[in-house]
Every structure is written in C-alpha cells, then in structure tokens.
Amino acid sequence: MKNIYLIGFMGVGKSTVCETLKKMLNKECAEMDQLIVEQQGMAISEIFDQYGENGFRDIETQLVKDLGQKEDLIVSCGGGAVLREENAADMKDHGNIVLLTATPETIYGRVKNSKDRPLLNGNMNVDYIRGLMEKRRPRYEEVADLVVSTDGKNVREICEEIITKLGIQ
Asked: Is the pTM of this model over 0.85?
C-alpha cells in the first residue's frame, strides 16, 4: 500500500483521522508535527520563535523526505506541509494526498482553546481563520488526489469515505 498523506488546514481533523485509520487499516500513523517536536526537543511555537517559519518549513521538508522512504504509512501532515512544491511532489511520488476540509466556524470551534497554533497567536477568530484558509485553499485543492469534508461527520464515517474512495480493501 502506498502512503496516505492527510493534508488540510489546522483543526480539520488530520490527527484524529490518522489515529482512526491506523486502527482500521492496521497501519502506522506518523504525526508530522509531533515528530518534529520530538526531533527538535521543543514545541512548534518555540521552533517558529527561534528559526522563523522558513526554518520550520526546512525541518518539515526533511521529514517529508524521510517519511517517503517508508511504506504503508498514514501521515498527518502539518497544515502548511504542501505549500512547498518539493513536499507535494514527494508525497505524490510515495502515496495519495487526501485533503480534509471543514468550515472556518468548525475549525474555530476545534482550535479556539489551543495555545500551540503559532499562525493563530493573537488572531484567534473566524474571520482570520477564513482568510488564511482561503489563501491556502487553491494550493490544497491543486495537490489533492481526494477531498473529504469533515463537517457533520464522525471520524469513522470520514475514514470509511477515505477507504472507499481510495479503493483500499
């Protein structure tokens, strides 16, 4: 089986879907942000503070390359992982890219109490989320092999939809 790369804006449910797909398919789940935190020994927000967004993206790019050397992975990607062309190309070479979507209101409801969302610090509101989502939407749609909305569905329904649409037995 090729890898499954879950992409989408923060709060769409990538981590939750990854964990559930792991159980349903008996595959390994790789949580990119968690792996970066473990490798770097600091929180994402600290990495942004110390190295800036570009430094964080460099670390993320190396991890995409490393994960592409494995098979049968379900990868929960950071929200901006596919913004770099080389990352999207690596993902396409080694698997299927599944875009998870949700409305800005749904995302706000999911992330409003989070303190580890560097791109939202000081901007935790629906309008800001909508604007950032709209900037990223064309890129997400461009690279996705499959789009699945998470609004109004439980995690099992989302996973079953992914499995069905990808033709996984």
From this structure: yes
